[in-house]
Design goal:
Length: 643
């Protein structure tokens, strides 16, 4: 077995933390690099032609005709290109990542990432109301997935690398490494285990370092460090903020889903053109809705926007993003939710300052909490929202009202309106659902290579005693039975075969003993009769010793027995007919997880699988056997280890 094969087997279990940490760090560097390239692409003066040269605004100072035509033409171009692509290749964004994680063990196609890079960049550059974080997550996750696929790692390791790429992407976009880790574990991999936690942390750190090398150490948003809660009497107002954020998040998820369902049969270029035209029309009244809009977010965090601008920007962004996302524009929703949250928080904060000037905190304090609350409510990711809030502000004073508002917002969406998260709803509209069974969550994190037994041997359906003795010499646990064509048709407990042979030997010995006794009696009777006959017929033989005559017959009998013993090793046994514990068996790839093995057994109604891999010579190499009992035992052990 080669070194690479041994590493792959090791990565299938729990004892590969150090190795996964190294690979996770490499993944973080590459995923961070892909996001940096994407950011340069979207912000380049050659692509984002409408950006103000001073860098202070995006599209606010542009001519009205450009505001109208840029998103319209951009939507048309993006749609015409998408129309030429295979429907499977058009699927991009975080929902695509979640789909591949849930149904394809984290194997993301590179073609979709290329589409996401160029058409996602063009969508953002043309001023559509989408974010760059969704495409960034897709690119980072695909980077991790391709590393796992290229190295042919077990699927449980590939899934961790997808989460590593996601964490690095978030970290590189916002310069928030901790929020990147929590986001990846809460939304993408949906588990908290040391085996995945440490590689994801290292990847997130690598993504943040890459971002700081190219863009500096400043956070994504400019936030005052001295913000604080003025009075505890504000807590009911933060409850109101959380409630309104939850209502808006629920409406956004619901309306986006309705637009998606009503337009699912429309041609792609029609949908993107309508989306672009809608953004252009709205931008004539509220130009802040165009593009990423982080300049407007920063202005609200500095308290520089009037109430009318805040209200118009909130309404415009809500309508524009609902249309763009519902019509499947290749962009993200994370950025727009931050935008809407900042506008809503700033609006409520400004109103509070007017009504209760001595009891209300600054409007920017409400704006930053509104950002985290609305984002977490739409994504149903309260921990990620809280970590982002803490890292972006670097201010522990914001934790108390932030936690309160975030929890209220999430509960309004999930409990009052009974809505799933935005991405879960998007998958539901496609006829899919996220698999979140606790048992499946554990099984998908463990590879078959880490659980399988390698105590196996191979035998044909018919085997001689000599072949069986050779096969059982190393005391294997299982026997894989192959037909004449070499295909595995059954799995047998080796102990049962050994027990059967022992019984056969005992039966043979008893039969031989019976034959010997019978033969002795028969020989004795025949000898006596013969002697009597010879004595009567020929008196000369009367003096011949009895032993001579008996020994002559005995020699002939011994020769026959010796021939029988020599023929015994060639006795043929049909392994499919002897009484033994035999099981039907399915094939499972070495890269598979226990979840895949379990599902495959359930589909075929069997209780065992043999683990194989196709070598570079196109030959099937079998590594071991995994049974349903082994999977159950591993699940129980994992639960006891994690509490």
């Amino acid at each position: 077995m080669t070194l690479i094969d041994r590493l792959r087997l090791r990565l299938g279990g729990f004892d590969a933390l150090a190795l996964m940490a190294v690979i996770g760090l490499i993944c973080g560097v590459l995923a961070g690099g892909s996001n940096i390239l994407f950011r340069y692409f979207t912000e380049s003066s050659y692509v984002l032609w409408a950006t103000d040269q001073s860098g202070d605004t995006d599209f606010e100072q542009a001519d009205w005709l450009l505001k109208l035509l840029l998103p319209t033409v951009g939507g048309l171009v993006v749609g015409l290109i998408l129309q030429q692509l295979n429907p499977e290749t058009r699927r991009v964004g975080v929902s695509h990542v979640l789909e591949r994680m849930s149904y394809h063990q984290g194997h993301l196609p590179w073609k979709n990432a290329v589409v996401q890079f160029f058409l996602g960049g063009l969508t953002i550059a043309s001023g559509q109301s989408v974010g760059r974080e969704g495409p960034g997550i897709h690119l980072g996750s695909t980077t991790g997935s391709l590393i796992g696929q290229r190295l042919k790692l077990p699927n449980n390791s590939t899934r961790i690398l997808v989460a590593c790429g996601c964490a690095a992407a978030i970290s590189a976009n916002f310069n928030t490494p901790l929020a990147g880790v929590v986001f990846a574990m809460e939304i993408v991999i949906m588990e908290y285990a040391v085996a995945s936690f440490i590689p994801i942390i290292l990847a997130s750190v690598a993504g943040a370092v890459m971002s700081r090398i190219f863009f500096g150490s400043d956070p994504a948003f400019t936030i005052q460090a001295s913000m604080d809660l003025v009075s505890l009497w504000e807590m009911p107002y933060f409850l109101l903020l959380g409630f309104i954020c939850g209502v808006i998040a629920s409406l956004f998820i619901m309306l986006t889903s309705q637009v998606r369902r009503h337009s699912k049969d429309w041609p792609v270029w029609i949908k993107t053109t309508i989306g672009g035209t809608s953004v252009g029309v709205i931008a004539l009244v509220a130009p802040q809705v165009m593009g990423i809009g982080y300049d407007t977010v920063n202005a609200s965090l500095q308290g520089e926007l009037l109430i009318t601008i805040l209200a118009l920007s909130l309404a415009g962004k809500f309508i524009a993003t609902t249309i763009c996302s519902g019509l499947s524009m290749p962009g993200g929703v994370l950025g727009p939710t931050l935008f809407m949250g900042a506008m809503l928080g700033g609006l409520l904060g400004s109103i509070g300052s007017l009504v209760f000037p001595t009891l209300s905190s600054d409007s920017e304090f409400y704006a930053i909490i509104g950002m985290a609350t609305l984002m977490s409510a739409v994504l149903q990711a309260p921990l990620a929202g809280l970590m982002a809030l803490l890292e972006l502000t670097n201010n522990p004073n914001i934790i108390l009202p932030g936690m309160f508002s975030i929890v209220i917002g999430n509960m309004v969406v999930s409990q009052l309106f009974k809505r799933q998260s935005y991405w879960e709803t998007q998958m539901t509209d496609r006829g899919m659902r996220l698999k979140v069974s606790p048992m499946k969550q554990v099984l998908r994190s463990i590879g078959v290579a880490g659980v399988m037994t390698r105590s196996i041997t191979y035998m044909k359906t018919e085997a001689t005693l000599e072949e069986i003795s050779i096969a059982l010499k190393d005391k294997p646990r299982w026997i894989l039975i192959r037909d004449e064509e070499g295909l595995v048709i059954s799995l047998m407990v080796a102990r049962d075969l050994g027990r059967y042979l022992i019984k056969q030997e005992e039966i043979l010995e008893r039969e031989q003993q019976k034959k010997e006794k019978s033969s002795k009696h028969k020989d004795s009777a025949e000898t006596d009769a013969e002697l009597d006959s010879k004595d009567e017929q020929d008196p000369k033989n009367s003096g011949q010793p009895l032993e001579t005559i008996v020994m002559t017959d005995s020699d002939e009998s011994n020769e026959a027995k010796a021939e029988a013993v020599e023929a015994d090793p060639q006795r043929v046994f049909n392994l499919m007919e002897i009484p033994a514990n035999r099981q039907e068996v399915v094939a499972i790839d070495l890269q598979a997880t226990l979840e895949e093995a379990y599902d495959r057994m359930e589909q075929r109604k069997v209780s065992a699988a043999y683990v194989y891999r196709i070598t570079h010579n196109k030959e099937e190499r079998i590594y071991g056997v995994v049974t349903r009992d082994m999977i159950t035992d591993q699940y129980i052990y994992s639960k006891t280890q994690t509490g």
